[in-house]
Write a structure and sequence with these properties.
single chain, Nucleotidyltransferase, domain 5, five-stranded mixed β-sheet, 6 helices, 5 strands, 36% helix, cytoplasm, manganese ion binding, hydrolase, nuclease
Length: 200
């Protein structure tokens, strides 16, 4: 099943997606991408279906061939302040704002979004597996976020962010249990399954 080029033909359409929503640490990152009509790459698919190697190959290709792209980070502090859903939408808005061309239509991965500057939008569940521009945005969001997590892994190597990218793996949770949390952890998230039962 190939990805569709656009939701509306003959409109400048931006696809947007985020990465890192389910993580316990680090920012949520969103990207927005406007692709040219003739865009093709055999690897392009929903970033969750791709290997890290494939995403790394796609990233420069998308950046060089897109008509415009933007990538925005929202920190764990802001996530704690406004909640992860609002932070994800804010990241998407900021990434759209960074586009050098204003889109005429926006397609969004997922089912939650707030209107951006009166530009019509359509939310699409599993949009990153259906539309090229959302798939491209998902690749950029994920690769930029992974790079960031690898960078902060050097600062806190005991949490294995290089491997788990901040997701709630057993290894990550064991490290939180043993060492406590860092300034990159999201304080409002349930970081450990037994958190509710901890003796204070």
């Amino acid at each position: 099943m190939g990805l569709k080029k656009y939701y509306f033909k003959n409109q400048l359409e931006a696809g947007t997606d985020e990465a890192g929503r389910g993580c316990l640490a680090g920012p949520v990152v969103a990207a927005a991408v406007i692709l040219p009509e003739n865009f093709e790459h055999p690897l392009l698919n929903d970033s969750k279906q791709l290997t890290e190697k494939q995403r790394i190959i796609l990233k420069p290709f998308i950046e060089e061939n897109a008509l415009a792209f933007g990538v925005a980070f929202i920190s764990e502090l802001k996530i704690d302040e406004i909640n992860i859903l609002q932070a994800s939408i804010l990241a998407m808005h900021k990434s759209i704002e960074m586009l050098s061309i204003a889109p005429e239509h926006i397609i969004v991965d997922g089912n939650k979004f707030k209107p951006f500057k009166n530009i019509p939008h359509k939310t699409i569940v599993k949009g990153d597996a259906k539309y090229m521009s959302i798939a491209a945005a998902s690749v950029l969001a994920k690769t930029y976020r992974d790079e960031f997590m690898q960078k902060i892994d050097m600062e806190f190597p005991n949490y294995f962010w290089k491997q788990n990218k901040g997701y709630p793996t057993k290894q990550h949770r064991d490290a939180i249990r043993a060492l406590g949390i860092t300034n990159y952890h999201r304080k409002t998230f349930r970081l450990l399954p037994e958190q509710l039962k901890l003796e204070l």
